[in-house]
Amino acid sequence: MRKKIVAGNWKMNTTYEEGEKLVQGIIEKKSEVKGDVTLIVAPPFTHLCCFAEPLGKAGIGISAQNCASHESGAYTGEVSAAMLASIDVHYCILGHSERREYYGETNNILLEKVKLALKHNLTPIFCIGEKLGEREAGKQFDVVKGQLQAVVCQLPAADFEKIIVAYEPVWAIGTGKTATAAQAQEVHAYIRKVLADTFGDAANRTPILYGGSCNPTTAPELFGQPDIDGGLIGGASLKPADFISVAKGF
Ligand code: PEP
User: Fold this and answer.
1) Which domain holds residue 231?
2) Hey, which of 97, 101, 233, 243 would you mutate to test ligand 1's pocket, going by the most ligand atoms within 8 Å of its Cβ?
3) How many structural domains is the chain composed of?
4) Residue 18 appears among annotated catalytic residues
5) CB 75 within 8 A of CB 107
6) What's 73's domain CATH number?
7) Whose Cα sits closest to atom 7 in ligand 1?
8) How far apart are CA 188 and CA 194, in angstroms?
9) Quick one: which of 180, 188, 190 has its CA closest to 209?
């Protein structure tokens, strides 16, 4: 049995006050989610320190959306994995397509970030996925394989066991175009196969989340697929009712 996980990526949204209300709303509604579903919330850096305690008390995980690729030092504006761990953050989204696209995060940089996150006991939520042109050219399998082989497959087996993977087709992120359950399942099964080629049976224990315009309507069919273990949710994580409804999709 793999873990079922629903993680909310708030991106660069919410002032502190708005974020507080959103956290409160999620905590109040959490009991509506039946079964063993791990909820994770990823607010902006500025909110993490104050939200860690109430979320922790409510049994909800807290994640950063990024961390530095260096341990510490003269890297103005960066936030290290050690800093995040020191305020009881337990997860870190890495490799999101927006970071790859707008901030030039290459596979080499991401490998450093993943290693540092693991060193400081943060669980990476490692995002992969193809762009629209790549999907149209039928290259989605090659793209995700390349992203996995360059980063996740470089890890020692013991570290691999700690990773969460998120398949996020870039054409589905923030576009309202959810991948069909069949399209997502096909790639998730392939991701698991690529991981199994390197890590064997351990790949059957890796949670693989789907992300890309997942919402309360599309979540149940997606989460019903054999290799989809939950979701990484952007837009629909910004309203407590929507986020909780997605999590009720199992
Ligand atoms: C995301 O950015 O991780 C995401 C899945 O966004 P959205 O749900 O808004 O497509």
Assistant:
1) 4-247
2) 233
3) 1
4) no
5) no
6) 3.20.20.70
7) 234
8) 10
9) 188
d(CA 151, CA 173): 22
CB environment 119-148: b (16+ within 10 A), e (fewer): ebebbbbbbbbbbeebbeeeebbebbbebb
Helices and strands (DSSP H and E) totals, the chain: 11, 8
Nearest atom (ligand 1) to Cα of 172: 10
How, if at all, do strands 123-128 and 164-167 pair?
Answer: parallel
Rounded to an integer, the average pLDDT of 41-46 is 98
Amino acid at 196: A
| CA 169 to centroid of ligand 1, rounded, Å | 10
Q: Which residue of 213, 218, 239 sits with most ligand 1 atoms within 8 Å of its CB, as the best mutation to test the pocket?
A: 213
168 belongs to the catalytic site: yes
Using one digit for the tens of pLDDT, what is the confidence trace for 79-96? 999 999 999 999 999 999
Instruction: Tell me the per-residue pLDDT of 56-85, one tens digit each, with 9 for 90 and over.
Output: 999 999 999 999 999 999 999 999 999 999
Atom number of ligand 1 nearest to Cα 214: 8
Which residue has a Cα nearest atom 4 of ligand 1?
A: 234
